[in-house]
Amino acid sequence: MKGRTVALIIILVVLADQALKIYIKTHYRVGDYNYVLGDWFRLYFIENEGMAYGWKFGGGFGKIALTLFRLIAVGFGIWYLHSIVEKKDHPGFIICASLIFAGAFGNLIDSMFYGLIFNESTPIQIATLFPKGGGYAPFLHGRVVDMLYFPIIHDATFPKWVPFWGGDDFEFFRPIFNLADASISVGVMAILIFQRKFFKHSHEAAVVTEDQSNRVN
Q1: Which one has a higher pLDDT value, 197 or 53?
Q2: Could you confirm whether 32 is annotated as catalytic?
């Protein structure tokens, strides 16, 4: 697989992710939602200061640490993608790595720049791109925009006999995420599912080495 193909995958994912985020940010108030396909697929605008799927990490200091970690990870990702393209690794693995990189880069853009280029989104105010009064947060303190919500099963409760959660509300799938998160998840899951195919040569080499070692012994 050629480097320009990898670049095209990354550009397309990042552009789609950012286009949807900017649309949501400039058309929705926090907490606003619209039904896309019935009750089970909605665009639901929230923001988070932490990791994928709304998980949080250590307040203000944690936010800076997480953003810097993402920045380092993206830098490493550029080197790693170049390495596996040069080595001509399995095209499927390269695509998966490209999806993971694109997702990480998409969320990094939010964390680095959204605080600078948008004003505050609130339950009563829709944000403006490049507001006259400046953004809502300094560099590295932007919040990640999430909007994809799939409550396939909702308005249900756990049976009383279920330990710990018996009688509590039950919903599947609860997390609200974005295209960048989805890109990362698809890349990781595909690697886990197809790892034997992606790393076939490495597996065969390990088997040969082990067989030779057993013969010597």
Answers
A1: 197
A2: no
pTM across the whole model: 0.84
Which residues, other chains included, contact 81 with Cβ-Cβ below 8 Å and sequence gap of 6+? Answer: 6, 94, 97, 98, 101
Residue 181 annotated in active site: yes
Instruction: Report pLDDT digits (tens) over 40-98.
Output: 999 999 998 765 555 555 555 666 777 788 889 899 999 999 999 999 999 999 999 99
Give the integer Cα–Cα distance in Å for 69 and 28. Answer: 29
Active-site choice (32, 39, 110, 146): 146
Catalytic residue, chosen from 39, 110, 181, 211, is 181
Q: How many CA atoms lie within 13 A of 177 on its CB side?
A: 19
Continuous segment of H or E residues that includes residue 148: strand 144-149
Q: Return the structure tokens found at 34.
A: 């619209």
Give me the torsion for CA of 207, 87, 104, 15, rounded to 10°: -130
Whole-number Å distance between alpha carbons of 65 and 12: 28
Look at 39 and 176; give whichever has higher pLDDT: 176
Q: How far apart are CA 23 and CA 148, in angstroms?
A: 13
CA distance 132 to 138: 15
E strand or H helix at 13, and its extent?
Answer: helix 3-27
Strand 144-149 to strand 169-172: parallel, antiparallel, or no bridges (unpaired)? unpaired
Measured distance CA(10)–CA(14) in Å, rounded: 6
